[in-house]
Every structure is written in structure tokens, then in C-alpha cells.
Amino acid sequence: MKLKSKVTAPFKRKSHATIPGSIIYTGNNTVEKVSVHHLKYDEFKAEDRVFDSNEKGTLLPSDEDIVDWYDVRGMQDTNLIEAIGKTYGIHPLILESIVDVNQRPRFDENEKGIFITIRALHFDKEKQEISKEHVAIYLIKGLVISFQETSSDLFESVRDRILSSKGRVRQRGSDYLVYALLDAIIDNYYITLDSFESVIEQVEDDVMEDHHEDIKGDIHNLKKELIVVRKSIAPLREALSRFSKTENTIVYESTFDYLRSLYENTVQIMDSVESYRDMLNSLQDLFMTEVSYKMNKVMQVLTIVSTIFIPLTFVAGIYGMNFDHIPELHFKNGYFIAWGFMIVVALLLVYYFKRRKWL
């Protein structure tokens, strides 16, 4: 299987002279039109509506008696991000982090709210590569705001459960909604890693069956993709550990069991990532061993051929010297005798090598 090497466009880097709290989108994913999906619900009803970034006035103050969920799709409209920050009192440094896709997944909290970033992973089966999407979630009592880089709906399953009143989301608060959103992304990690594992198994078959010559490149590309996964999940494990131990009153006691479950899932996923890394290292070692084995077989054949020709070259060299007095030189059948002797010697050597299982 031939894997395609991936050329990733570099992220935009903020200037060192940028003022802290500046809202500058550093990613490359842009959507045609930034939209905001507003879902308001309680135990008895749910309302869903969509508006674009020009309708900033529709942002409403949160009501703690119900749960408001604003899902912003697209981060390039920094004016919208700033308007959301002013409406809900979000610290400028948090707004800066929302649109900074270069940072590691993290967890922050203050007396007003909780902020967490995470990377959604997608596996492209056609290109055989993993892509990542920066996602930010801000939580205050009665309000959740999620930010996605693209227009793809990462939280479709959560939204469907709320609208159809399935599961526990409608009976719980905004803190449980954050758990559900994180859980939706982490569940997709399992799908991504399952697909990744199937590719590793295919490459392993290629190593054993020698299907193509670029196996070394395939292994190298897979190791690079695995680094992307590891850099996304390892810091998330730390962030979820802190989230599951927070003393912030926004998070109800009943939600901590679910948060601890999320943390345990990331630990399990990291174990899988480490096992895949060991598999790839083993595959690389196996490939190099196969290459060395084939080289040794070639050298063995060349050595045997050279060994067979050593006595033949010796005989030819003796009777090829320009001396007049060589006893057998003038024998009537000397040419045929020499040929017969060399053939017998060659056959004896071949027989010997076969007995020793060198051939």
C-alpha cells in the first residue's frame, strides 16, 4: 500500500510585538460564512436556531434556569469573537486562546467560568492521513459556547440527543453539556485510531509480502501521523485530569464521575498510541531485518559463485602461462582433460554447498 506524504501549510505565527489579548486567528481553515447555532433547552423543551456573524445583536445574556449553547462554526471572524467576549464577560486572554490554533489542549478556570481547548482528529482513508481541528469550549453557569474551525458539525450527535430528548443532557446542567461535547470528540478518537491501526496492519502485511519498495517511506509517514495524534492527546489527558478535580462550583458533584470517565478514556487512548508507536518501531526493525536478509542472500550467492570459480581460475592460470616446458601442454586431449577436470571440480563444490545447505 502506497501512502501519500502530506505537505501541511504552515500555521500563521503571531508577531512577538503583538499585544497580549489580541484576537488574531492563526489557522488556515476558513469557512465561506461564519454561523452561530443557538440551542436553548431545559428538561421540558428545546429550541434551535441559526444566525450568521452579522446578527451579533441576537446574543442574549445567559439565564441560569435554562441552558444556552452557542456553537460558533468558523473562527476567522474575530469581530464576532470579540462581540461574544463583551456580551459574556470573557477575558481577552481567553479570547486570544480561542483563535490560537497553535497551542496545546489546555484547561483554565477563574471565578467566572471554565475554558478548555481540544483537538478534533479526522482520518482521511483516501489520503491515509490524520487532520486536526482546533476546538474551544467556554462554560459559565447556564451557558456553553463552543468554537469550531470549520463548518462541519462535530457535535451533531449531542444536538440530536437534546432535540429528541434522548439521554441525560436535557435533565442536566451546562456542565454536563460540556462533558457531552468533549465525549463526542473523544469517542471519535477511537474511530480514528481504529482506522489508523488497520493501515498499520496493511503495512505490516506489505513488509512480510514485499508488495512494494517504499515501505520505509510508509512507516515514516505513519510515525509522523502518530506524532500528530500524540501531541493532541497527551496534553488533553493532563487538562482532563485538572477538570475532573476542579473545585469550581459551576461543576456539580454528579458530573465528576463522567469527567473522570473522560480522563480514563484519554489514558486508555494514550496507551493505544504508545502501543502503535511500538508497533511502528517493530515494523521498521522488521523491514531493516528483511533488507539485511535479502542483502545477505545476494552476498551468499555471489560468494558461492566466486568460490566455485577460484579453482577453475587457478587451473586456467597455470596452463595459460607462457612457458614452453609444461608437461601436459602438448597432450593430444589436454584441452578436453582440462575442461573435464574443471567441470568435475565445479560439480563437487556445488554438491558440497548443497550438503551444507548453503544453496
Automatic annotation (TrEMBL):
Organism superkingdom: Bacteria
> Catalytic activity annotated for this protein?
Mg(2+)(in) = Mg(2+)(out)
Q: Which SUPFAM superfamilies match?
A: CorA soluble domain-like, Magnesium transport protein CorA, transmembrane region
Ranges that cross the membrane: 301-321, 333-353
The record's keywords, sorted A to Z, are:
Cell membrane, Ion transport, Magnesium, Membrane, Transmembrane, Transmembrane helix, Transport
Q: Where does this one sit in the cell?
A: Cell membrane; Membrane
Q: Which Pfam families match?
A: CorA
The GO terms describing molecular function are:
cobalt ion binding; cobalt ion transmembrane transporter activity; magnesium ion binding; magnesium ion transmembrane transporter activity
Kindly indicate where the leader peptide sits in this chain.
Answer: none
The GO cellular component terms are: plasma membrane
Q: Tell me the membrane topology, using the record's own terms.
A: Multi-pass membrane protein
Concerning InterPro entries, the annotation shows: CorA_cytoplasmic_dom, CorA_TM1_TM2, Mg/Co-transport_prot_CorA, MgTranspt_CorA/ZnTranspt_ZntB
Q: Give the main localization category.
A: membrane
ATP-binding as UniProt keyword? no
NCBIfam families named in the record = corA
Q: Which family does it belong to?
A: Belongs to the CorA metal ion transporter (MIT) (TC 1.A.35) family.
> What function is annotated for this protein?
Mediates influx of magnesium ions. Alternates between open and closed states. Activated by low cytoplasmic Mg(2+) levels. Inactive when cytoplasmic Mg(2+) levels are high.
Protein name per UniProt: Magnesium transport protein CorA
Organism this protein belongs to: Dokdonia sinensis
The beginning of the lineage is: Bacteria, Pseudomonadati, Bacteroidota, Flavobacteriia, Flavobacteriales
